[in-house]
Amino acid sequence: MQKYKFNVNGMHCASCTVLIESEIGDLKNVSNVKATLNTNSVEVEGDFGGKTDEHIAKELSKLVEPHGYSISLGKTKHKALWGEFKMAVPFALAFIAFFIALQKMGIVNLVNISTVTYGTAFIIGLVASVSTCMAIVGGIVLSMSANFAKGGDKVKPQALFHIGRLISFFILGGVVGAIGSVFQLGITGMFIFGLLVALVLIVLGINLLDIFPWAGRLQLSLPGVLGRYVLKLKEVNHTLTPFIVGAATFFMPCGFTQAMQLYALTTGSFWVGALTMFSFALGTLPVLALISFSSFGMRDSAKSGVFFKTAGLVVIFFGVLNLINSLVVTQIIPPLFSF
Question: What mean pLDDT is reported for the chain?
Answer without folding.
Answer: 76
